[in-house]
Amino acid sequence: MAVQRMRSLEAEMKCPGCDAEVVERHLGLQVVRAEQGEERLQATYACPACGLSSAIEPSRDKLKSWWLLTKGAMLQAEGRFQEALSCFDFLLSHDPRSAMAWYNKGCALAKMQRFSEAVGNYDQALVIDPQDTEAWHNKGHALRRLGRLAEALGCFDSALLISPKRETTHVSKGNLLLAMGQSREARGCFDQALGINSRNSDAWLGKGCALAQSRRLGEAIECFEKALAVSPRDVDSWNFKGKALEAAGRPLEAMECFDRALVIDPENLLARERKERLLARLSRA
Ligand SMILES: [Zn+2]
Questions:
Q1: Engineering a disulfide at 227: which of 38, 112, 201, 206 sits with its beta carbon 3.0 to 4.6 angstroms away?
Q2: What is the C-alpha to C-alpha distance for residues 27 and 96, in angstroms, rounded to an integer?
């Protein structure tokens, strides 16, 4: 990818190739080691419209912010969430318009199971950058964890309005609808994801669950098989396939599925429980 130097600095950034607007979210930050061994931060913007990559020379203040953003992201990747939070807080204390800092802080809080605070931080990010699909998607997940399902659904819809081809959001929306007992609408979401990528095993798993919820067991089992053809070590798919086979009156094949799940994950409680229950049922029969 050609790297062109961007004309303007952080105010009103435009792609030099096509004039599309680029925002902080399109920023790529990379630490590079110079010849003398000192570290330097390389900042590039990837244009969302034409894909052109542009190097940028930030102001001193912006450079400081971006170092903190990089440091926070590295700490977060190492699971050091409290330290990451301190990084983002320090950044926001002198650069409160950094949507990426708010967004990343939201992610760190969500990892710490502090979902209510996470939602507040995603909101701050979205006030500055309302087109941030990731922030809408993650806000939806945090709201779901808080049991605010209708609001979560609204967030997934907002994400899909901006990025209609985002498979993972279609799958998340489908799983949410499943939890709300709306299996037909859920199936529509999984079909959308599969229309984009027919090898999305999470979408096959979800579609199988939606069909099982509507008692269409034969079709559900076929979907679980498709999920397993892509991800043969997915314990959930084995468990759900087993459950559907058992409901369809095929206990021996169901047992095989629970056994497969337990070979992959011997600690899996669900597989063990279902296997024991099935064994008890068969011994009574
Ligand atoms: Zn462009």
A1: 201
A2: 17
